[in-house]
């Protein structure tokens, strides 16, 4: 696992967007797995700026959703489908045909989950998966004690996650769904490259447990330790509880430039 400590969220977004630009140069039709929430926004902003500035051609890129609320009406502005279309797909100038996601309004939720795992495999698998992290260590919506081998399935959100996400629903927790579809941890681990961005002091405990704690279902993000190509990008505040912070800084400062992200 590589840990990159950056001064702030904007710098984290830039580092990751540069890595995505390199990937799209090597593989123009790469499948990018995208997370929602506040953390990844600087990545998308940096990526969109490159496309709009003409330094990056992302016209053949494909985008896959990580998770989705269950039961929001189709087209709800806070469904993750609507969010990814608004924040990533449309500003990159991609069509909905380039977008894969689970059907959060399906009658048969488990069938929708299984169909999504199949669709990801049929699309050749995710090349680079962007991840955020919950204050409880979740990735996607794999809450603590999710199986590390899990596939895409329905999960029940913890009350803490519903409280954390109420800001997207007029600060009204009653509007936040209890259930979600999320790529499982086993599904996420199949992506070729995992890139987790964490910013702010509120993520410091979860980051320390993910990077330096034992691999444990209690901290779902710790499963990144099992992946051969995982990159954790953190700002100073989110890095503040890492015991090996100086080593991570030293390693990154001396990284061979040919290595890329
Ligand atoms: C959402 C997702 C979640 C978020 C996490 C952090 O697609 O995958 O794991 O990344 O809840 O959310 P923010 O970034 O809003 O703190």
Structure description:
This protein has a single domain, classed as Rossmann fold, CATH 3.40.50. The protein has helices spanning 9-26, 41-53, 80-89, 109-122, 159-165, 185-188, 204-212, 245-253, and strands at 2-6, 31-34, 62-65, 67-69, 99-100, 128-131, 153-156, 179-182, 193-198, 230-235. 32% of the residues lie in helices and 16% in strands. The mean pLDDT is 97. The strands form two sheets. Strands 1-10-9-6-2-3-5 form a seven-stranded parallel β-sheet, sandwiched between helices. A three-stranded antiparallel β-sheet has the order 4-8-7. α1 (9-26) crosses α2. α7 links the parallel β9 (193-198) and β10 (230-235). The chain is α/β, with parallel strands linked by helices and 261 residues long. The N and C termini lie close together (11 Å). The radius of gyration is 17 Å and the shape is globular. It has eight helices and ten strands. Bound molecules: fructose -6-phosphate. Fructose -6-phosphate binds at residues 35-39, 66-67, 132-134, 138-140. Fructose -6-phosphate is lined by residues 35-39, 66-67, 132-134, 138-140.
Compact description:
32% of the residues lie in helices and 16% in strands. The chain is α/β, with parallel strands linked by helices and 261 residues long. The chain has a single domain, classed as Rossmann fold (3-Layer(aba) Sandwich), CATH 3.40.50.
The helical percent reads 25-40%
- Rg, rounded, reads 17 Å
Strand content: 15-25%
- Secondary-structure element order, as H and E? EHEHEEHEHEEHEHEHEH
Intertermini distance: 11 Å
What does the overall shape look like?
globular
Give the cofactors and ligands.
fructose -6-phosphate
Question: Total helix count?
Answer: 8
């Amino acid at each position: 696992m590589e840990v990159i400590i950056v001064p702030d969220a904007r710098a984290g977004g830039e580092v990751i967007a540069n890595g995505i630009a390199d990937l799209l140069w090597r593989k123009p039709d790469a499948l990018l797995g995208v997370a929602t929430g506040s953390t990844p926004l600087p990545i998308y902003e940096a990526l969109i700026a490159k496309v709009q500035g003409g330094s990056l051609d992302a016209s053949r890129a494909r985008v896959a959703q990580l998770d989705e609320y269950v039961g929001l009406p189709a087209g709800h502005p806070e469904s993750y489908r609507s969010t990814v279309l608004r924040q990533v797909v449309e500003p990159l100038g991609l069509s909905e045909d380039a977008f894969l996601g689970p059907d959060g309004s399906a009658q048969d939720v488990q069938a929708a989950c299984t169909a999504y795992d199949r669709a990801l495999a049929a699309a050749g698998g995710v090349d680079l998966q962007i991840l955020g992290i919950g204050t409880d260590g979740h990735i996607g919506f794999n809450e603590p004690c999710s199986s590390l081998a899990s596939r895409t399935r329905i999960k029940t959100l913890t009350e803490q996650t519903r409280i954390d996400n109420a800001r997207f629903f007029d600060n009204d927790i009653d509007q936040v769904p209890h259930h979600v579809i999320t790529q499982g941890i086993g599904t996420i681990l199949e992506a070729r490259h995992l890139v987790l961005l964490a910013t702010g002091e509120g993520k410091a405990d979860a980051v320390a447990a993910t990077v330096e704690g034992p691999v444990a279902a209690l901290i779902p993000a710790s499963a990144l330790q099992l992946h051969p190509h995982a990159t954790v990008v953190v700002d100073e505040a989110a890095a503040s509880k890492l015991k090996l912070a100086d080593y991570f800084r030293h390693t990154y400062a001396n990284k061979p430039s040919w290595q890329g992200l």
